[in-house]
Design goal:
6 copies of one chain form a homohexamer. By secondary structure, the first copy, chain A, is of the alpha+beta class. Chain A is about 40% helix and about 20% strand.
């Protein structure tokens, strides 16, 4: 496999001939006429095209957000910003492209599976293990789950992000469960099931988007539905009705409060543990992402803008090595 | 040391001769006359006295909430509730009593110190270790810290509760830090310092209460003040001014939002990690406590009342062994 | 069938020999000793028993909230309040009693069925009619639906209250749909399905209460689950997947906002119509109930207390006949 | 009367010679110089002018938002959007134009009057009928009321919108009143009076805007004031003081909550009915409007933007004919 | 005039023969039977009666909250609390009693009038002075205004409280106006008019209560109505329509926010000044009252309960004389 | 000193040769190419430069927000807006410029000092006077305090704004204290200390900005820290520990509520007075500022936009002279 083109690092003058993803098609107008700019990206990042003026429109007819395109061009500079002056551009059939090279990705997911499957094997409750196996021993489920992002544009918004997030939540939830005296197997089950509804509420074959059913029913209820459906499938129900209700409650209550989209609030210790572990992973990931948005900081230590994913807070990236021991210590 | 009297388990007719704590002095009135009931307790739990009628008042003259008393009496029953019919009661000097036998306690704290001190020794940053040592190598500080409760009437409201809570937050925060890529030493420092203000805002020599300065300044600011004060003491400042600000920020922002009493919101990754780890420990402990309030459930699985410490939620104590493997599995 | 005993109207001295429901068993204490009061009721209203003192306890051993009891006694008066001085009381087997005589009821429900079934027959969309028939042509469903209350203690908290509420919502929703240009058949389907989850989340065989699954999953999600289940039953799916999603969306969004317990907000015109029609029926019924609580008003026109079911508002019962035409008009 | 020019349907190249309304005068700047765009509209919709460059400014000197103008020009296209290239434009005196051709309108209002007046004639309470007649038998009032919009830019924002909204609220309120057992005549009176304050708080002679007194006092209080004023006029007061207070209460409380602008909350059943009927009409009309904004949906079923008039919700326009009966049914 | 009986200071054994006000008639029950306690008060404070048992009821037949009664009795003590053992009690005709001796009062109001009238005379704007004179030169208005309390049970809840509050708001508003550059005459007019609606929304002839119209329309709108009414009375309008609107805006917006009951928010500098001056007087008076509730503090400096009038805050009454200068200063 | 150039009043064609401050460096793009506009200002106001095109860039290399620059140019007009066509521009060393001529300023501050120092001399409590003197008798403190703005972009955002605000708060607080019976010396102390933290949380040497420590700790806590620090300095503590806590409480609670950034709420009467006086000065100043933004109003009396500093309210600038006495008065 050829090396991934490092878009953010290409110098002015570099020649480009590669497959990229159309992230956005922006129509702009000016007194001198209208023009179009394409936002192009791959897993390394993104770059804007030079303007396509009225006379260049035939080049880009039919090109839409989400298309994979074969591009030939050169990096130029305009007012201090690099742009990609496109010579040739053509749409590629979706089947012919490797999506993991075109969108952000968490990379190799096998390590996440190893961790999760290992923890899953430690479960000592037969009926619980059996329920989880309905999903996690199913190759189709694993195929989707290891690709799905954990959010559209927030935390872990990358291919494989949901799996990575799941491992994080599991690690945190196990620690919290130990401190709180919660039933560890049930907590792990909650972690493994809480976000399965995202497989039906997100679309990640190109640009990340909500599906219609994602808007209409929401990932919380979709997850509960998926569990209900699988539990009705086997000839013999793998668990009791009360056990099923406990698992559904874990899924439905994991947002913690009605106003965050959970139709019921956590009533069990395991549901409470799951909720806080989920929050801890999601919110700290968002802060980490914000701190990595270099252009948000300029030359200062405090971000020049407020981050929507931090509910409008700023971030501070001052650090210290706490270095030399104080004299005489 | 004699065995602790197990108040909740004493049968009717049992003879009592022991030291107890006066938790509450309740004046009640009835058409038949006024009477007084004492709520008496020790580390095992609590029991109400039989009424002291008008003619019994001389027995209890001068007895106040928070007093340790020597009691002789017998367990009787009234309308299905056990009560302690007191024959003799007298106030003991505070110095002569062992407080850990009279109030709820987390028990032996040495294991918590071992864990915390072990983690502290792993810190690789000399100036940071030095700052923490100003507190955690100070015997007076350790004496107080291992006794202080983590709250007056909520989570970890027991002697040593603050230390136990600190170990829990540390364990959780370390896991979250690993997932989020936060600086682990700084996170641990935040954990160790975030609640030190409670040493000045709580009083635990008998009944747990706020101090006046606890009301006037609050434990969040008191903690920051204590850090400032210690850092001004040594001949040579153990850390830089920017480092001091980062530590103060960790303390001040650990409640996460202004409306929860933090004058600033978390701006660093380490502050964000600390906030969520603190929450995860406190909130799941509250849920665990609620589930242990047996009398809140009656014969059902859902609590008959809403818990204030869960923001008005109920709790569910249904459980399952997820037992026998499903047939044919 | 004998006439229903009119509890609120019985004069002092009246002899009572009838079947009543135990609504509450209240333990009270006084300096003179403990005593028990039973709140007893039937469909006409409620009355308190005279105290059962310590020596009377054998009479009421084993009597619990929700029991139907055969009572012999006499109406007496105490401090201006009537009470039932009980001579004999014994528990009846639940099967032997007619519940509609013991709890509030909306009365004969056949008129509600006639209205609803009539409107249902006007539906012109075959697949939609078929889906509704899965429930509304099912005798078991009708048996439950015509008994279930619409709430535990709020609006339409009576046997048959859910059916009465459904007819009201349907009438209002049809009018709103006409004004707003919504699809009337789909609106009616939403009305008929929106509260079916209450059949599983309430218990009404005696005192009205939530079921455990009612607490764990909530009536909103339970209703969606019931629809999913029935739609999976028939050999051939009665509607398309998109149609199923639209119906599930109607159920899930009918509370209108996340903080009111809907995991998604209304996205279609029909869901919006359903939400406001449901609100209009529920809220105005609550105001009507408040105005009928005679003892809340004393001699004034403004209620002396604030009603919880009106979010803490008071009510005003001043009225006028707007009578004689003004002179010279 | 000549046919109304259908602005949204005019093809490129079409010649235009007609009276239009200036909805907005937009100053824009570009590196190539500043330019002006006029938003022009009539009752059929709106279209933007081609830019007026610096040299074209004399053409549009003195033209302001709200002016009626006589325009000659031609439809051209620029970057896929149609625009009106103006050759000649001149301001017309307001008296010479027919406003109903220039702004959105609900069309012929006589059917709304017929419905409302019919319902009004059914009122059986003499003094109430007399009060309503002070407004609804007054030609000046009717002249204004049948023109006033129901909002500036939200629901029923069209000439005659207030009258249409009133009929909708009346129809809904009558149905709700029947279900809730409210006094129907008083409810109708509330409907007819609740929004009369908009006659003084809106201006609709061209662009819809708030008046100064609309900002200073608000339509809720202005309506109450108008009622007070009229009731003071007749020689003999048409109703009692208590009756007047009930009517004022209906007007003042119809927003339902303080935070929505009602200085008092509904205390009577009739006020509660009015509030929910008003809401049902307004909110479902807003959803209907959103679903008609074709350009908000692109090619999808879910709107690409969130609607401010739906408090930031999206809308879904998927539909079905629920068509063929399922096989075998 | 005889001296006012100092109820809070009467020693046990003191003979009482005086006129008191019945503040509350409390029915209480106990196992020994029901009994009645009267809360009796005068302008100096309040005291509870000893219980009236069943056999004592004829003594108090017909006595209601708000009655003025002639009482003969003696101060006794019960469980450390003084009570008034009543020998004779009889209702007095309302006309025969001096209300200012029976309810809390701000005392002689002439100094407040002097201040306010003095400031009013400084007004230099003829039409404004004329409008204010419609009220403040009217003896009937002054008679009511100098008696009305400023609230039912919160700040300045005393006879004359509204006048005292008005002087305070005026003093503060004048200072704020000077700092903010607001028109001082208009600010004073706002102060004088903002609470006139309380004359119609409160009743103070005995116990302080809301009137029905106070509930139905609220004092904010009632005040605006009173102004409108007076302005319509004179043969020639004393001010222009725009001026009238500005005054109405001052009244209507003085609560500052919709959720506090103002139907419009302040749009002028004078309205903003009035709002904050009103708040400053009301809120600090509430804090002052709380600090004077001696029994809320016990022996501590922090109140043992949270005050509803401070939105649930506690209060601290620690003080210092900041006394001797520090040594060497 | 030469006269300050009156930027808002310069006519087209005027020659400019003066020192200005760079308030903003704006990069803009157009189809014709990118360009840069400088926002330039002095204490009189601000003006935009004409565009610097690609070829003009060398002129402005290295020029940043906050720089003082020497400018030669001429006022031209473009689309009705005046702009400064720059011929020569060069950066000046910060030391060489007089900041009070370049940024908004409250002007001569000596009158504010006279007032404040006068009031301070009236303090009769020796230890309190001593504490205040630690700051207000310190020339360094006075040097900073008389320059610091009271906010970055809100009320009193001018050099010397904090001092002016302090005088206003003091004047208001003294009046409120008198009405509420608060201790006047302590209130004055609170006024003088409440905002001292702004000296460390703001930067005003050019553009007004937050410092990093301002973001990390906030001005409320910074102020408390500054007081603690100074009180630890003298050989003998100038006040008792309890007195220190009361002063710290005044600073920490002055925002009144947790959600406004105070970690504790006011518990003393003096803290309550301070809070409302601070609010009254700040909020009315914001309204005054809004009314002075002439361009927000166009030709109307109601502002065409909502002001962020008024929480999204509009403002009304209608006024009257309340002029001629009404006829016959």
């Amino acid at each position: 496999m050829t090396r991934l083109l490092d878009l953010p690092a290409l110098p002015v003058g570099a020649h480009v001939q590669d497959t990229l993803l159309v992230l956005e098609v922006e129509q702009k107008s000016s007194a001198g006429g209208g023009y179009t700019v394409l936002q192009l990206g791959n897993a390394s990042g993104r770059i804007a095209s030079a303007p396509f003026w009225e006379q260049d429109q035939p080049q880009i007819v039919g090109i839409r957000k989400g298309h994979a395109v074969q591009v030939i061009g050169e990096i130029s500079e305009y007012r201090g910003r690099r742009q990609l002056r496109v010579t040739t551009i053509s749409v590629l059939p979706k089947e012919s492209v490797d999506l993991t090279r075109l969108v952000p990705s968490v990379g190799d997911v096998s390590r996440y599976w190893e961790t999760l499957d290992g923890w899953r094997r430690e479960i000592t409750k037969p009926r619980l293990a059996r329920v989880l196996g309905l999903f996690y021993d199913d190759d189709g489920f694993r195929h989707d789950y290891e690709r799905c992002p954990a959010s559209i544009a927030g935390h872990h918004a990358a291919l494989g992000g949901l799996l990575k997030h799941t491992v994080e939540v599991a690690a945190i939830a196990r620690t919290v469960a130990r401190a709180a005296g919660a039933e560890p197997d049930l907590v792990l089950a909650g972690v493994l099931l809480h976000d399965i509804g995202k497989l039906e509420s997100y679309r990640w074959d190109g640009v990340f988007e909500y599906t219609d059913v994602g808007y209409l029913l929401g990932h919380v209820v979709l997850g509960a539905r998926m569990l209900d459906l699988r539990l009705d499938e086997p000839d013999e129900p793998p668990c009791t009705e009360q056990e099923r209700q406990l698992l559904l409650h874990l899924i439905l209550s994991h947002h913690g409060k009605l106003e965050f989209g959970s139709p019921v609030t956590p009533l069990t210790l395991e549901a409470e543990v799951l909720h806080w572990a989920d929050n801890a992973s999601a919110k700290t990931a968002s802060m980490g992402d914000a701190l990595h948005e270099g252009d948000a900081f300029g030359e200062g230590l405090i971000s020049q803008r407020k981050f929507w994913q931090l509910d409008g807070r700023r971030a501070y990236r001052g650090a210290s090595d706490w270095g030399a021991p104080p004299a005489g210590a």
